[in-house]
Structure formats: C-alpha cells, structure tokens
Amino acid sequence: MATATRSIRRPATEQKESMFAWEGKDKSGKIVRGELRAHTENVVQATLRRQGISVTKVKKRSFGRGSKVKDKDIAVFTRQLATMMRAGVPLLQSFDIAIKGTSNPSLGRLLNDIRSELETGTSLSNSLRKHPAYFDALYCNLVAAGEQSGALENLLDRIAIYQEKMLAIKSKIKSALFYPISVLVVAGGVTAVMMVFVIPQFKQVFTSFGADLPAPTLFVMGISDFFVAHGFLILVVLIASIVGAAMAYKRSPALQAWVDRASLQIPVIGDLLRKATIARWTRTLSTMFAAGVPLVEALDSVAGAAGNHVYKVATRNIQNEVSTGTSLTVAMQGVQVFPAMVVQMVSIGEESGQLDSMCGKVADFFEREVDDMVAGLSQLIEPIIIVFLGTLIGGMVVAMYLPIFKLGGVV
C-alpha cells in the first residue's frame, strides 16, 4: 500500500489543512490508498497527479463526536510522541501518525488542532497552552523546558513516565474504594426491594394470624411501611442530595478544602490518601527539578499537582519561604505536613546536589507503600463487608421468620 504525505508551512490567516483519505491507481494499474493533508480535495488530486497516481476517490476524514478525552489518552499520546521523536521522526509527522492511530475521534480533533498550530510556526508548548483542559501548566512548562534545552524527546519521556505513575496511583486508590462503595450500593438496592415488595407480603400473612408479633418484626414492618408510604420522596431526596452535593463541591473551593482536610482524618483511608499525595508531590518535584526548572517555579507546578488542598496551601507557603532564601528543608519542616523521613531525604538531596534523585526515591517508596496499603485494605474490608451484609440482610430475614418460628413452637 502506498501513501503520500506533505508538510506545508502556511500563514496563520490561511484555511486550516484537513486530512483526506484517497484511493487511486498508480502507473502500473495497481490500486493504491493513502491519506494526505491538504486544504481542499482539488489540492489532493493535483498533488497525486504529479506523483503519477490516477485518483478515483477522495474523502475528507471527519472526526465524530467520540468519547471524552481522558488522562489515559493524553498519557498514551505522550508516550507515543516521545517514542517517535526519540526514533528521529519529525514532530509534524509524529502528530500525523498519532492522529491516524487514535480510536477516539475527540482526541483526533484535539491533535489535529495542535498540529495546525504547529504548522503556523507556533512552538509545541504554546500550542499545548491553548488547550488547558487537557495539558496543564506542569505539562506545558516541561515541554517548554525541553524545547529550550534541545532535549524535547527526553522531557516528553519524563512526562510520559510521570503521567503513567500518577495514573497508576489513581487507579489503585479507585480500586480500593470501588469494592466497598459498589457493595453498599447493591446492599441499599436489595434493602429497598425487600422493604417495598417483600416485607409487605409477609405483613399480610402475619395480620391473618391475629397474634402479637415479636418486637424485631414490628420494627422492620414499621420501617417497611415508611418506605412504602414515602419511597418515591426518599428516592427524589437521595438523588437531589447527591447531585446537589456534587455541584456544590465542584463550585465551592471552601467545600473542596473542607473535604480534603476531612478526608485526611479518616482512619486508614486518610493515611492512604496522605501517602498517595506525598508520592505525587515528590514525583512532580523530581520531574520538574530534573528538567532544569528553577525550584521556585517548580513548586508552583507542584502546588497545582498536589491534588489535596492541605498540601497545596503548604506548598504555597514553602514556595514563599524558598523565594526569600530559606532552604527547602527548613520550609518543609515549617509546614508540618511531611513525615520526618521525607524531610531528611530532601535535606540529603539539597546537600548533595541530587534533589531530583532523592525526591524520586521518596516517590518510589511511597508508591510502594500505597500498593501495600491497597492490598491490605482489600483484605481488611472484605470481612467487614461480609459482616455488614450478614447483619443487614440476615437481620431482616430473621425478623420476618420469628413469627413463623413462634407459631411452629405453639403447634
């Protein structure tokens, strides 16, 4: 299969190029297909004719709606771009390959827009800054550092490693929380079904007995009557509460800060979140400092990537102290949110001139700690959930069968 590609440097005011899929026959009559970037179909046909290809079909490649561009999509693209540039593939051609290879139309549109900016002579970092929803300040600053130092492929590789490790930490925390949350949701659904549909049937049977019912049975039947009478209202209030809380959290920085502080105080879970945050904090600082970004500027990106309000505020305070000449170690001791081991490792890194390496070692240590805690948490939660479900569902079943047992004893 033959392909034809073409790079055109154009003024910013010209129409953007699009990707066209074409089909035709070469001089020997063999059917060939390919893709070509151009402004219009006429340009595609003229270009291919000059190459001796008789064009039979030209179709503009359109990007459908597609799914949302996720962090994983950006991480995969970064890894692809780093690999291709390390192999000597030109930047524009690397984007062409990435665009053709993506299965997400939304990502394809994003990369196509960035490539169009690159064709106007805009630097990669400035092109990425126009899409802050997908490329944060940390990403753009590292790319800019790579462009200035002439080692863009090395910085892209560092970014890819950083994103992969951050995604791994997020995935492990989500996996630790997903199981108990899903079980609670299922338990709530089963309880609602029993309260609304099953227990009322038992109540009709027990009414015909004409005898006094045990207290546990009366208690469960009372709750069932409440569910039957107000079930729809309960459902509406529950959904409205969840949606309202989510919207309030999204719009209120004060609420976000309170949730971040409170989450660190939760037994076991708080320790897990704290270690994950420290791992992300030290990994970000290591990556920025290794890229040659000055410490004060690096801390600005570290604060944005902290992921927790407590550590974001602490990082801002550290940044202010460092900007006045205070050492990073002393500034970290002052905020009192980092374990002694982290502060000691940073102190050794500052004294030896290997701050990036020491921060990387700290990040590796806490990432392993997160792995171990997630594994231990899964083992701890499972028996707790079994006891909870047994008490909830088993309690209702026993309460409903107590009158039957009592009746059997009388007989």
Explain what this protein looks like in three dimensions.
The protein is mainly α and 411 residues long. The termini are far apart. The protein has 15 helices and three strands. A three-stranded antiparallel beta sheet has the order 2-1-3, with helices on one face.
General shape: flat
Largest sheet: 3 strands, antiparallel
Q: State the end-to-end CA separation.
A: 87 Å
Query: pLDDT under 50 segments (min length 5)?
Result: 1-14
The chain-level structural class is: mainly alpha
Looking across the biggest beta sheet, what order are the strands in? 2-1-3
How much is the radius of gyration in Å? 30 Å
Q: Number of DSSP helices? A: 15
From N to C, what is the helix and strand string? EEHEHHHHHHHHHHHHHH
Number of separate strands: 3
Q: Which range does the strand content fall in?
A: 5-15%
Q: Fraction of residues in helices?
A: over 70%
Overall pLDDT metric:
82
- Oligomeric state as shown: single chain
Record the SSE blueprint.
Elements (H helix, E strand, L loop, with lengths): L17 E8 L5 E8 L2 H10 L3 E7 L10 H16 L4 H11 L3 H15 L4 H6 L7 H13 L2 H56 L7 H37 L1 H11 L5 H22 L4 H11 L3 H15 L4 H8 L4 H13 L2 H56 L1
Antiparallel strand pairs: 1-2, 1-3
Helix pairs in contact: 2-3, 2-7, 3-4, 6-7, 7-8, 7-10, 7-15, 8-15, 10-11, 10-15, 11-12, 12-13, 13-14, 14-15
Features:
411 residues, mainly alpha, three-stranded antiparallel beta sheet, 6% strand, flat
In short:
This protein has 15 helices and 3 strands.
